[in-house]
Design brief:
The protein is α+β, with helices and mostly antiparallel strands. It is built from 13 helices and 12 strands. The two termini are about 25 Å apart. The chain is elongated, with a radius of gyration of 29 Å.
């Protein structure tokens, strides 16, 4: 049986190649785009966690992606929050998107932000001392070949790089808070507050809620549990769309390919049935050929995905693709289900041929 399946595939190399490529494309689409989405969400969460705060204070209905939160909170609230029992440090932050490069820029009060954790780890340079200076993290500096003393354009302004720090502190670029407010036209306002407690995070969080009952106050631990594509409803339609498109591609390609094969092999089917092959044997023949095609397609899709991830890791280290074992298994299952579903109708149609009519088919 295996020899027969292999011979059938080799007899039509172009069609076999196209079918395998289509199934491989399905695997690649689902695995890569889901991995890219998961990677972006996970990497963002880790950067927020790396700031060193225990609690995040945001405006009502703020986005979980901090850069999309409106800058409507008064920066002066930092003093009131700092005066609450259990609060050790408060850092107001204005998160802004640099539209030309889609990089996150934090406007910070350097001393307060730095005090949230063990501080920035400077690999080169020093903290900013003037309004037009910027601190860059090492990944962005390496990717864009940025050195201390270089000029970079952010938010439509030119800044001089004064320091390069280890990544993982929320953003890729850091500029003085008052400069970010001036550029954004939101003087005296910020996007959020990072808060570090003295130890009892939940008790401190409740104190902040009493002070700011209408604002969104989360512990960083709670925030991290949300930074998962399964917990973010905004990403579910996208993931479902990718999965649906992938399954439809494999279904239609296999359906068309197997239907054409049935027409081409009508006489062969008649010969097999005249030799005693049952309906089940014919179905098994076509489904087996489909599974063989699917196996090659899955292999090509997996190899292509991991090859691209390896290339991106070297060329675009700021772009994280997180591929889990669970999604590898899901993708393989989806490819098999879509391909087998596409093969069933042609297989049952072939199994229903009358041997006499099949042998006389031209």
């Amino acid at each position: 049986m295996v020899q027969l399946l292999w011979s059938n595939l080799r007899a039509r190399p172009v069609r076999t190649l196209l079918s395998v490529t289509a199934i491989g494309l399905q695997v690649f689409m689902v695995l890569f785009f889901v991995g890219l989405t998961s990677g972006i969400v996970s990497e963002w969460g880790k950067r927020v966690e790396g700031v060193g705060a225990d609690i995040l204070v945001q405006p009502p209905n703020a986005s979980i992606f901090l850069v999309f939160s409106p800058a409507v909170m008064q920066a002066s609230l930092a003093g009131k929050i700092a005066a609450l029992p259990g609060v050790d440090e408060v850092a107001p932050v204005l998160a802004v998107m640099n539209s030309s490069t889609m990089d996150v820029v934090y406007g910070i009060d350097y001393h307060r932000f730095n005090a949230l954790s063990k501080g920035f780890l400077f690999l080169q340079g020093r903290p900013f001392e003037s309004p037009n200076e910027v601190i860059v993290d090492d990944i962005k500096a390496h990717t864009k070949d940025i050195s201390v003393g270089d000029n970079v354009t952010l938010l439509g302004r030119e800044f001089t790089v004064c320091g390069i720090v280890a990544h993982g502190k929320g953003a890729r670029f850091f500029i003085p808070l008052h400069m970010a407010q001036e550029i954004s036209g939101v003087e005296g306002r910020v996007s959020l507050f990072y808060v570090r407690s003295t130890g009892d995070t939940e008790k401190t969080r409740k104190e902040i809620v009493k002070l700011l009952p209408s604002d969104r106050v989360r512990s960083v631990g709670e925030y991290m549990t949300l930074m998962n594509t399964d917990n973010l409803p905004q990403f579910r339609p996208f993931i479902r769309a990718m999965v649906g498109i992938g399954v439809i591609i494999s279904f239609l390609v296999v359906l068309l390919s197997m239907h054409t094969l049935v027409l081409e092999r009508t006489k062969e089917i008649g010969i097999l049935k005249s030799l005693g092959a049952s309906r089940l044997d014919i179905v098994r023949l076509f489904v087996g050929e489909t599974l063989l095609l699917t196996g090659f397609g899955i292999a090509i899709g997996l190899i292509s995905t991991f090859a691209l991830v390896a290339v991106l890791r070297e060329t675009s280290p700021t772009l994280t693709v997180l591929i889990s074992q669970e999604w590898i298994l899901r993708t393989i299952a989806l490819a098999i289900v879509g391909a087998v579903a596409g093969a069933l109708y042609p297989a049952y149609r072939a199994a229903g041929f009358d041997p006499v009519d099949a042998l006389s088919y031209e």
